[in-house]
From TrEMBL, chain A:
Pfam families: Complex1_49kDa. NCBIfam families: PRK06075.1 (NF004739), PRK12322.1 (NF008974). It is a peripheral membrane protein. NDH-1 shuttles electrons from NADH, via FMN and iron-sulfur (Fe-S) centers, to quinones in the respiratory chain. The immediate electron acceptor for the enzyme in this species is believed to be a menaquinone. Couples the redox reaction to proton translocation (for every two electrons transferred, four hydrogen ions are translocated across the cytoplasmic membrane), and thus conserves the redox energy in a proton gradient. It catalyses: a quinone + NADH + 5 H(+)(in) = a quinol + NAD(+) + 4 H(+)(out). The lineage of its organism: Bacteria, Bacillati, Bacillota, Bacilli, Bacillales. NDH-1 is composed of 14 different subunits. Subunits NuoB, C, D, E, F, and G constitute the peripheral sector of the complex. The keyword Repressor does not apply. The gene is ndhH. It is found in: Cell membrane. InterPro entries: NADH_Q_OxRdtase_suD, NDH1_su_D/H, NiFe-Hase_large. It comes from the Bacteria. This is NADH-quinone oxidoreductase subunit D. Belongs to the complex I 49 kDa subunit family.
From TrEMBL, chain B:
Its cofactor is [4Fe-4S] cluster. NCBIfam families: NuoI, PRK05888.2-1. It comes from Neobacillus rhizosphaerae. Belongs to the complex I 23 kDa subunit family. Residues 37-66, 79-108 form the 4Fe-4S ferredoxin-type domain. Keywords: 4Fe-4S, Iron, Iron-sulfur, Metal-binding, Translocase. This is NADH-quinone oxidoreductase subunit I.
Length: 366, 139
């Protein structure tokens, strides 16, 4: 008779597969997880509290550092919230630049999600391919904003820089290139039998679970809920573009993996149309006062980031700093379902399930 | 097995592709003009308006002014100007608000030092940091 003993295993915070400083305390019985407890907060910087002492323009560089893989959407959500409060109309050219930047960033973010997920499962080369193509996007955004990750590109009422000469053409040329690469990615990994055996049917949850845990983004759409804020509550100029919202039914890790690749395809569609319709000239910044003061009151806006629904709530008492600022950070909410998913799972599936949720710790900890 | 073969085909196709890596640090990294690197400071242009210190989100700029040595001229000139690169996030807001473009970004980004104190850069150091200066500063 083999006697097993319960053991507590500590994973992280310094573990490459946790994608940052995330700690997971798992109770295991043999190879089966009986309880999992996520420990977060190692990267907490108190962005929301810091923002209470900062002017609205000064908060933008702080939002870069929340979800550092898609800073553009973070930049947008804070600017969008202040613009909503002040009733500022953003010039058309600025809107196009914002959408192009956000969609490029979404592709880059999903490429990291794709590459690192496969890396977690033990395959090294797809990660390098993903980073090769991501580098092209990062270089383009570097030319546009002057930084590779922490863009600080958007301002209340528009954007900081106009597109440099030849930049729009570069984006135009990138779209067909990326489409071809995407097919290559599917050839490389999506049909690989070893990979499919590894990820199909693990980390499954139902539509009700997903909604009850307030999951969003690919984590919600993998259960068949067709919910994308770009379509359901169009902001900026997203209603001008023709694109689909990919959904899957199975709700497992493979569905999430596949959705992210499909979303890259949809983003490329948007990029193609945005580049085509890009206005030849126009303002990039609306007329805004030098010191931005949001009027007394409150506002909540939400947009679709690569990881889900990112929201920004501002309560203002009419001063140049917000009275209270709150970000709904999608990674934080998406992570909450992890203990439920891990319970009763084999320990070997732990990283495969965590990776499929695709968290960014800067965002989880805020 | 077909999936594995397809993947292998993609890998083999990439074997002959050109390299995409750079030979950094043996060769300098190509960076766009807008890149936000360590600031260059022009003491003679500064009018001590304090806007850069006020807009800085991390409070890393410290400056003091003194009276103009020429009594006929009004206003102040810069006396000390320090940036603490331990906490500077190179966000570009200081150069954005500067009315005389006395502080601008460069393409230099190598900041590693042996001690934390060395990351306090003073006026002289920032003045001498005059390579790869950004050409276009305002949109």
């Amino acid at each position: 008779m083999i006697r097993t003993e319960e053991m507590i295993l500590n994973v992280g915070p310094q573990h490459p597969s946790t994608h940052g400083v995330f700690r997971l305390v798992v109770k295991i019985d043999g190879e089966v997880i009986t309880e999992a407890k996520p420990v977060i907060g190692y990267l907490h910087r108190g962005t929301e509290k810091l923002a209470e002492d900062l002017q609205y323009t000064q908060i933008i560089p702080y939002t870069d550092r929340m979800d550092y893989l898609s800073s553009m959407t973070n930049n947008y959500v804070i600017c969008h919230a202040v613009e909503t409060m002040m009733g500022i109309e953003v010039p058309e050219r600025a809107d196009f630049l914002r959408v192009i930047a956000m969609e490029l960033n979404r592709v880059a973010s999903h490429l990291v999600a794709w590459g690192t997920y496969i890396l977690d499962l033990g395959a090294t080369s797809p990660f390098i391919y993903a980073f090769r193509d991501r580098e092209m996007i990062i270089n383009m955004l570097n030319e546009l904003s002057g930084a590779r990750l922490t863009f600080n590109y958007m301002r209340v009422g528009g954007v900081k820089w106009d597109a440099p000469e030849g930049w729009i053409e570069k984006v135009r040329d990138f779209v067909p290139y990326m489409r071809e690469q995407l097919q290559g990615y599917h050839n490389l990994v999506s049909g690989n039998e070893i990979f499919l055996d590894r990820v199909k049917g693990i980390g499954t949850y139902t539509r009700e679970d997903a909604i009850n845990y307030s999951l969003s983004g690919p984590n919600l759409r993998c259960t068949g809920v067709k919910w994308d804020l770009r379509k359901n509550e169009p902001y900026s100029i997203y209603n001008r573009f023709d694109f689909d919202v990919p959904v899957a039914e199975s709700g497992d890790a493979f569905a999430r993996y596949h959705l992210r690749l499909s979303e890259i395809e949809e983003s490329l569609k948007i990029l193609e149309q945005a580049v085509e319709q890009f206005p030849a000239e126009g303002q990039i910044l609306a007329k805004v006062p030098k010191i931005i003061k949001a009027p007394k009151g409150e506002a909540y806006v939400r947009i679709e980031s690569p990881r889900g629904e990112i929201g920004c709530y501002i309560a203002s008492d009419g001063k140049k700093e917000p009275y209270r600022l709150k970000f709904r950070r999608p990674s934080f909410y998406n992570l909450q379902i992890l203990p439920k998913l891990l319970k009763g799972e084999n320990i070997a599936n732990m990283i495969a399930i965590l990776g499929a949720i695709d968290i960014v710790l800067g965002e989880v900890d805020g | 097995m077909l999936g594995l073969a397809k993947g292998l085909k993609y890998t083999l196709k990439n074997l002959t592709r050109e390299k995409v890596t750079y030979d950094y640090p043996n060769k300098p990294l190509p960076l766009p003009d807008r890149f936000r690197g360590i600031q260059k400071f022009y003491p003679e242009k500064c009018i001590v308006c304090n806007q850069c210190a006020q807009i800085c989100p991390t409070d890393c700029i410290n400056l003091t002014g003194k009276k103009h040595p020429d009594p006929a001229k009004k206003g102040k000139i810069i006396d000390t100007y320090d940036i603490n690169f331990e906490i500077c996030i190179l966000c570009d807001l200081c150069t954005e608000v500067c009315p005389t473009e006395a502080i601008i970004m460069t393409n230099n980004f190598e900041l590693a030092e042996y001690s934390r104190d060395m990351l306090f850069k003073n006026l002289e150091w920032l003045d001498e940091n005059d390579e790869n200066i950004r050409q276009v500063n305002k949109a």
